[in-house]
Design a protein that fits this description.
Elements lengths: L36 E7 L3 E6 L2 E18 L6 E7 L1 E2 L5 E2 L11 E5 L6 E3 L6 E9 L10 E8 L5 E5 L2 H16 L17 H14 L3 H14 L32 H4 L1 H13 L4 H17 L25 H22 L3 H22 E2 L4 E4 L8 E2 L1 H10 L7 H14 L8 H4 L2 H7 L3 H8 L7 H6 L24 H9 L2 E3 L6 E4 L9 E8 L2 E9 L5 E7 L4 E6 L14 E6 L2 E6 L2 E7 L5
Parallel strand pairs: 16-20
Antiparallel strand pairs: 1-10, 2-3, 3-8, 3-9, 3-10, 4-7, 4-9, 5-6, 11-17, 12-13, 13-14, 15-16, 17-18, 18-19, 19-23, 20-22, 21-22
Helix pairs in contact: 2-5, 2-15, 3-5, 3-6, 5-6, 5-7, 6-7, 7-8, 7-9, 9-10, 12-13, 12-15
Length: 609
């Protein structure tokens, strides 16, 4: 409501309640270090439809996060309601979001002042939506009666990707939109519903976020929140920030997240690792080490030897098929917490502490492999009761390779088995969001790039193409169309493979002091390329197939950086290399060249990916 004359001295405000003095928030007041959450773009509806007399639905073409803007005229006291939604019912009216929340969500009401055309934007709320359903207008809407302001953390875009497959370009666009839609000073889940900073969701998509956007300041601030939210005993809630009444041992709410939940808690290690690797932050280890030490030690009081088994709570998440026991995921991520704690302790000169964590990690690895590794088939299998055969699960065979649990010399065999399983299932994924983060790159790096490409380009359920085929240009919360929300981000992890796998652009040392260019050239794809604005300047990798069957790889290496270009040509040394490029070795079916700063073009005959 906009009361007429409210800014004039003679306005009668006797009915207004005076402001009350409240207690100041707890904690320490400091200057904000992260980008503001603000309006970044304005969108016009692409379609408008009257779904019942006086009720109009405005379609903005895709799901965004932000606020509607109303511009309307009418008599004083008339109420105009605006309800935001992601989905429509069959009759064209909106499907109001509810999920686990017993409330009418994303509903705004404005009472007209009767002073002519008025404009209003609900600046103190936001939501995820594609549609705005409006009632209370005095007549048919004008083209600008309802517009939308897109709102999220004002992080800079630092990455670009494109390729010769239109579907993958659309997946990449949807992944970026899903990441931004959920970036509100923390990586939240579903701005249509919870808007909570679930830590596990963020670790799943962290590599994708860090190659696409400058998340350094936002994540640094959020990691400070991790320390603020940590309990005295070291427990970390799965939502940061949270209240004292959710996510802690014996608190009200979901008991699945009482105590350690390693697949979520490991975000306290993975996010600092990403900041150091991709942004060259040398201070983040010291800034977060005390919090991470307390968390690792707390978790170790639950996951104890000699078995180091943890079957409680949540493991792999949002999976399309069987993933194995909770322990297979949880203990794998506990292992990563320990190796991460050891690595940061070494970096900080804490040799004794590093040795303690490394020794514990070695015990966990041994117990894990004793429990799940099948030496005869060279796969990880889940034991079953009653003498039934042990069960294969994709997640169980992705995480041990990705996190370093696999027995020495066995990684190739495990990934070969993973590829065989995917081929047998017509390239159907069974994994959830945690194994999905690593799966495509593992396949590509172990000679199965064609399998990764076929997984990524499927259009039946479960797949990114299935969503796009159903006009969902964002990242849903689950693989099915019945997912609670179509506005999430953890499935956006595929975007990191576009940069690091297809284009092959990877940091090989913190802050891209060393760059690895290791592209995957799958059968059926004629080109791919990416750029990343690194702390040392723009790095780029772009390849294309030529009519004569050869391929050209163009590499841009920024200053103060050394690079290796991995040419997937079967390891054959080129008869002619670019000026300044120096042959180093043959490795993994590639000819590896040292490349100095500058622009370079390699011409070679690719082998099958």
């Amino acid at each position: 409501r906009l009361p007429r004359g409210w800014r004039e001295a003679a306005f009668d405000d006797t009915a207004w309640e005076p402001a009350r003095i409240a207690k100041a928030p707890a904690g320490r007041l400091v200057a904000a270090i992260h980008e503001p959450v603000t309006g970044v773009a304005t969108h016009k509806p692409v379609a408008t439809r009257e779904v019942s007399p006086g009720v109009w639905v405005f379609d903005f073409g895709r799901i965004i996060t932000g606020q509607p803007v109303l511009a309307a005229a009418g008599p004083a006291g008339r109420t105009v309601s605006l309800v935001l939604a992601e989905k429509l019912r069959k009759d064209g009216t909106i499907q109001v979001a509810s999920g686990l929340i017993d409330a009418q969500l994303l509903t705004f009401r404005y009472i007209l002042a009767g002073t002519g055309r008025e404009s209003w934007r609900p600046a103190f709320g936001y939501g995820g939506f594609r549609y705005v359903q409006v009632a209370g207008l005095t007549g048919p809407p004008a083209p600008d009666t309802v517009t939308a302001v897109e709102v999220h953390s004002a992080v800079a875009s630092i990455g670009t990707f494109d390729c010769g497959d239109a579907l993958l370009n659309q997946v990449h666009d949807a992944a970026r939109q899903g990441l931004l839609n959920n970036m509100h000073a923390a990586q939240t889940d579903t701005p249509t519903l919870e808007k909570n900073g679930w830590t596990g969701d963020a670790q799943a998509s962290s590599a994708a976020a860090a190659v696409n956007f400058d998340v350094a300041r936002t994540w640094t601030k959020w990691l400070d929140d991790f320390g603020d939210a940590q309990a005295a005993n070291g427990e970390l809630p799965e939502i940061v920030p949270t209240t004292p009444f959710y996510g802690y041992e014996n608190s009200p709410g979901w008991n699945y997240i009482w105590g350690p939940t390693p697949a979520w808690d490991v975000a306290a290690f993975i996010l600092p690792e990403e900041l150091a690797l991709r942004f060259g932050d040398r201070r983040i280890a010291a800034r977060t080490q005390a919090m991470r030490r307390r968390l690792a030690d707390y978790t170790a009081t639950f996951i104890k030897g000699p078995d180091f088994r943890y079957d409680r709570g949540l493991g792999e998440y949002a999976a399309a098929g069987p993933t194995g026991p909770v322990d297979a995921t949880s203990t794998a991520f506990f292992f990563h917490m320990l190796t991460g704690a050891a690595a940061s302790a070494r970096q900080l000169g804490q040799a004794e502490e590093a040795a303690r964590y490394a020794a514990l990690a070695a015990q966990v690895r041994e117990a894990y492999n004793r429990r799940y590794w099948d030496a005869a088939t060279r796969r990880y299998l889940a034991p079953t009761a009653g003498g039934k055969p042990a069960v294969y699960a994709q997640t169980m065979n992705v995480l041990p390779v990705a996190l370093g649990l696999v027995p020495d010399g066995q990684a190739q065999a495990v990934v070969d088995g993973l590829a065989a399983d995917l081929i047998a299932k017509n390239y159907r994924l069974d994994v959830g969001v945690y194994a999905l983060r690593y799966l495509p790159r593992l396949l590509g790096d172990h000679g199965h790039g064609d399998v990764a490409y076929k997984v990524a380009t499927r259009t039946d359920q479960p797949s990114w193409g299935f969503w796009l085929k159903n006009d969902i240009r964002s990242m849903p919360e689950g693989w099915s169309l019945g997912a609670r929300s179509w506005n999430h981000h953890y499935f956006a992890s595929i975007s990191s493979w576009f940069y690091e796998g297809l284009a092959g652009l990877r940091p090989a040392a913190p802050g891209y002091a060393r760059l690895q260019v290791r592209p995957t050239l799958p059968t059926g794809l004629d080109r791919a390329g990416a750029t990343i604005l690194t702390p040392r300047g723009e790095a780029a990798s772009r390849w294309r197939r030529e009519p004569d069957g050869l391929a050209v790889l163009e590499v841009t290496v920024p200053g103060a950086c050394v690079a290796e270009a991995w040419l997937p040509n079967g390891g054959q040394r080129l008869p002619r290399a670019p000026a300044g490029a120096r042959f180093l070795r043959q490795e993994a079916g590639c000819a590896v060249y040292a490349v100095p700063p500058g622009r370079h073009a390699f011409r070679f005959r690719p082998r099958t990916a």
